[in-house]
Fold this protein.
Amino acid sequence: MSRGGWRPHPFRQFLLKVHSRCNLSCDYCYMYTMADQSWRSRPMVMDPQLVTVAAQRIAEHAAEHHLPSLRVVLHGGEPLLAGHDYLAKIVEVVRNEIGESVRLDAVVQTNAVLLGEPALRSFDQLGVKVGVSLDGSPRGNDRNRRFADGRGSYDAVSAGLRQLMRPEFRHLYGGLLCTIDLENDPVETYEALIAFEPPALDFLLPHATWDSPPPGRGPDTSPAPYADWLIPIFDRWYDSKSESTVRLFQQIVNLLLGGSSASESVGLTASTVVVIETDGTIEQTDSLKVVGQGAPATGLNITDHSFDEALLHPGMIARQLGWDALSDTCKACTFGRVCGGGLYSHRYRTGTGFANPSVYCPDLYRLIEHIRSRLVAELRRAVT
């Protein structure tokens, strides 16, 4: 189907919300602390019958679009609260439905509090990768990522990570996610993360909009505090040449050199991510929960609707339009095609919707400008 030259890109990444609750109480969590509170009315665990329906819908979509591969992310809340046996069963059901002609990349995104040898042995049998959320040093992590009773989670998470780093499980290690906290020292945070030898790590900007600006953005602060935080890490990473891949930096480098991005956070790559909640509803990206109650909703569910129908939802289309979805300000910007307007959710402002630059516009501009200057300097040295 074509609308003004646009053609839908099939979904390739399916986030299954297998458990809607969490064993941590992180104070920045987009699931529980943002404007959308739909989790309160949803079942805790995805019913096995819904898992089967979801797997059938995924297989249907893969067959319709002749997909050679797809990714299923077991997500939450905290997915391990559903039990590792149940997570393994979900992977088996999906794999059986899509058949041997489609490669399934399965991932569990976890806080690692419940990650132990039994779970890892189960994941190893099915080739399930494990991504872990950690915000740096014990002090830095426990500033925000705590249990409901106020206890820090660092010790429990690091114990799970040490299990994952064992030689027999190391191949399952997908990487680390770190949400930026300006109160934490950037280089200390980076060094604490690479101490766990992640194959990849990523730094996430806290979800925010123009209506709800990010922490640390105010009249008495730097106009680009998040760039000021990230730039020392970039310089350390860039100069090391051999440390872990940092996705945000690597994607910006790729874009500056004429390549593409594998993430919605920068660049103009069409989004191919869809979310299936524990009650079977089909939703847009989780980050839209920062916008308002019901912002990620599509009005569709896997029992009554196909994923092709979800592709034609206006919100899904907007996240696939790339350049055409950018504001005039972004189109006029030197780095418009590199930044890509930033994460779609971060552009929201009451009255103009998503037709705005990212609320992190000054940060993204300064970071990209700095990375470009480092690349240019190195290229000049190489030719002299």
